[in-house]
Amino acid sequence: MNRRWRPVCTVVLCGAMTFAMISVSAGEEGVPETRQKVELTAGTWISVGDTRWAHDASSVAGLGNPTSKLTYKDVGTNVIDLAGKFWFSPTVFGRLNGGFADIGGGRLTDDDYGSGQRLFSRTTSNVSGNNMYYINADIGGRVKEFPNHRGYLDLFGGYQYWHTQYEAVGITQVVCDSGAIPSLTCAAAGTISNQGETVITNTMNWHSIRVGSSTEYRLTRRLSLIGTAALIPLSIIENKDIHHLRTSGPDALQQNPSISMLGFGIGADADLGARFMFTKNIGLNVGYRVWWSHAIDGKVTFHGVSSSAEYPLVQFDSLRHGLTAGINVTF
User: Taking the model in full, what pTM does it have?
Assistant: First the structure.
């Protein structure tokens, strides 16, 4: 996780969980409030993302652990976010949430290490595209209503699919220490090549099971605090890279994909914000959202032209966070 954003994301995650726990003890059960059967939200998530993965090929003489580390940093998106909550009974609901966006820039840093973690090569590339989209499908129930129509606490569980694809363009050689891995060569530091050419396409898919709670606590008739916190006890990461320049020579790789990864892990989602009601049925939501997924274990397969090699996956982390805003309508 980017150290600059770690305090912010930690505060949001912990704050959402604390808010949910406080809501549980916010008072004795009151008279059930009248609620609508459908709640729709349309809005945006102005977010920035960070994805990092690394593998261990130190079983090959002269290579370090990690052997290679790729970092996609400051990848911005302006997500169109849509959600619907549908009540099947006074206490049971289903919720569907989806979002999509184009990638709005960023930077890829590719580090390669020799034994003793001596940096052999560092290159950077601009992230020019491509896209991100996600789907959350939950089912849940209302477990508490606060007295005097102050709000509620819901519990839910469901499935999350999170897809991101990056396209990295051009190569700038920042570091080259040919002595770190004598059997390999790299371009001299300062070399700029393949400008305007896509050099790596990375496609990431997280499949996750999540459980959590949502709450609203009304401060006045029009203004309320809202929050959602979800833990991801199991997540499957599927990741594929295409290295477009490695098409010939001893290091040539297949092109669909060149490198694939499969692993499992954990994660967490959190939303904190406020809602202002213009009328009884129409309101404005503003807040901050954090998504984090982390691989615990996995494997990386390099798909060579004539053979393949498999190595341990030692890191795969995805973080996305940013401001949210949307119009909420109930009927």
Answer: 0.89
